[in-house]
Amino acid sequence: MNMPLGHLRVAFLGPRASFSHQAAAESFGRTSADLLPHVSFADAFSALQQQEADYAVIPFENSTNGSVVQTLDLLADRNDLYKDVKVCGEYYLTVHHCLLVRKGTYPSGWEGYDGSITKLYTHPQAWGQCEQLLSQYFKGVERQDVSSTSKGAEIVSKETEERGAAIASRFAAEYHGVDVLKENIEDRADNTTRFLILRNMRAERTAQLELEQPNVLGQDRPAAPTTRKTLISFAIDHSLPGALANALLIFKAHGLNLTSINTRPSLKRAWQYIFFVECGRTPSDENKEAVHKALDDLRHVTEFCRDLGTWNDQLG
Amino acid sequence: MNMPLGHLRVAFLGPRASFSHQAAAESFGRTSADLLPHVSFADAFSALQQQEADYAVIPFENSTNGSVVQTLDLLADRNDLYKDVKVCGEYYLTVHHCLLVRKGTYPSGWEGYDGSITKLYTHPQAWGQCEQLLSQYFKGVERQDVSSTSKGAEIVSKETEERGAAIASRFAAEYHGVDVLKENIEDRADNTTRFLILRNMRAERTAQLELEQPNVLGQDRPAAPTTRKTLISFAIDHSLPGALANALLIFKAHGLNLTSINTRPSLKRAWQYIFFVECGRTPSDENKEAVHKALDDLRHVTEFCRDLGTWNDQLG
């Protein structure tokens, strides 16, 4: 299957060398697609809706921090801005942090480190993820918050006077041309972010590619996927007792196994919510139409419901 | 019903004059209880568990921004630190912002405002909530982020050289002794935060008071409350298909109407969650035992479940 992948345009949440960039690169291959940074979640969604990008790679949840509310709010699409955007895949990226220094500063590496780093740069969230190393070796060292881990690597790459170090990924180190002084400095080895791969369902380019799961291209694709996941959003009328339970029952009735539920405020009325239900099924002849039938039933008990896409489970 | 309210100790999320302080003051009365600021959510929970406070008033969700994850994470209580803490009430506070200036700076008020303010202070979240006024009257004026809206009011109260203004509540204006130059400057008039009122279920002090709903003290308490709300947390084994649906079905089976569902990572295994289910019932002889029975059933289909308390709905 040889696709014209060189022309694929993949939006990610910038800046360059961010974890989203890494997820996009690993999903689509570093050379075969144009990876396009976007300054905000909304920009990436807009680019996809306007067909300025073929796919978008967006963080959806982290195993430690939970759901990414900006992504849920854009998927909620309260103003019908992104009506052609759907999920077509997912990608799991384990978050590994490294201690990065300007090229050549410490030629003998971490073993020969002499304690001379005077300033540290990283995104505010990363400090808390590397507490063990920081408390053991960098007590009292000045810490400077920056807008992204990648930005910290960039600052360190350009430093001439200070002895600075950044906490960022190996991917960012390679991108900005700095040295990895010590790797895997995170406290939790299992901190993983799940990214959604989105596409514009009306775009001819991606339809022709039939790329439901771009990141399995070139790999042995299993004949029958273990699990197909589906994401559905809906709102209910809370003044009707049992309305939420009835909506959730529909999934069970069609053999769709609920795996997660998220909620965001509807912003139409206070204390009314948009629900995001993720469900899975092992494909069979019997449940081929399960999602379609569930949506039909949901329309009767919800104020609105929306099919946000179906894709292959990358864990199952 | 005369209670020794003067001795009540109520923990709130500080600093003083925060929205939590205001919620605590309005729930418990400004003079009849000792209101104690706590620097973090965890400190407030600890104070309650250690019986250094009788109640705690903690933000739970906002009608625009959604759930407060710090509160959910503490209610999840993954390390059994707060096992006696339960919800006993709720309080809704509508968030009104004011433009605050040092006392006497603008004696003719907003009508006579001459455009001389050179610097604005507020919490980062508040800028976005007052965009209309800011874009109309304060384009290009320097903005300084501060750790709380109350802190901004404090800074302005002490200013001598600059012409600064803070965006904060009227409550903060009164506390810090500054003038309200313009009130209700928020874009959305309906931005409301729901606070939970927590107590230590083993504390004799609060048990004697029988204060399930402290903020209705002194008001005409309805003979029969319209709705009783209950919060229950649980985790399920996701490898069992249908486990989540089965757990949610139990609420319906006992006549408990699901009103909201929140999730947080379990932090035991990636992509496993702790669910927080809020449900309501109109009290009747038939459903007196409904919560108790639902919990009994939940124990059979969940890895753990916990009763986080029952209280009177303040909206219904």
TrEMBL record, chains A, B:
Residues 9-200 form the Prephenate dehydratase domain. Its EC number is 4.2.1.51. Residues 232-312 form the ACT domain. It catalyses: prephenate + H(+) = 3-phenylpyruvate + CO2 + H2O. It comes from the Eukaryota. Signal peptide: none annotated. Transmembrane segments: none annotated. The keyword Lyase applies. Pathway: Amino-acid biosynthesis; L-phenylalanine biosynthesis; phenylpyruvate from prephenate: step 1/1. This is prephenate dehydratase. The lineage of its organism: Eukaryota, Fungi, Dikarya, Ascomycota, Pezizomycotina.
